[in-house]
Amino acid sequence: MCVTWDQDKCCHAGVCVGSLPEVFKIEDGRFVIDAEKASEETIKNTVDRCSSGCCNRLANNN
C-alpha cells in the first residue's frame, strides 16, 4: 500500500501521528510515512479518520 500526504490540505490535527507514530512521524522537520510498519487495515483505519482528508491510500498494482 502506498500512502500519500497533501501538505496544503493538512490541518495538523495529529490523528495520524497520534494513532500510528511508527508509520506517520516527523523526522528532521519532515513528515515521513513508513507504510511497512503496520498492516494495511490498520493504516486504512487511520487514514479514514483524517479530518482534513490530506492522507490518502493507493492500492499497489502488483
Into how many domains do the coordinates divide? Answer: 1
Our measurement of the CA-to-CA distance between the termini, rounded to an integer number of angstroms, reads: 10 Å
User: Biggest β-sheet, characterized?
Assistant: 2 strands, antiparallel
Report the oligomer. Answer: single chain
Query: In percent, how helical is the residue content?
Result: 10-25%
Average pLDDT number: 92
Structural class given helices, strands, pairing?
alpha+beta
Query: What Rg, in angstroms, do the CA atoms define?
Result: 11 Å
User: H/E element string?
Assistant: EHEEHE
Name of the CATH first level: Alpha Beta
Poorly predicted regions are none
SS field, number of helical segments: 2
CATH fold annotation = Alpha-Beta Plaits
Under the CATH scheme, the architecture is 2-Layer Sandwich
- Strand order in space, largest sheet: 1-4
Strand segment count: 4
Please tell me what the overall shape is. Answer: globular
Note the beta-strand portion: 25-35%
Domain Divergent 4Fe-4S mono-cluster: 2-53
Protein name: Divergent 4Fe-4S mono-cluster domain-containing protein
InterPro entries: Divergent_4Fe-4S_mono-cluster
Organism: Methylomicrobium album BG8
List keywords for this structure.
62 residues, single chain, two-stranded antiparallel sheet, Alpha-Beta Plaits
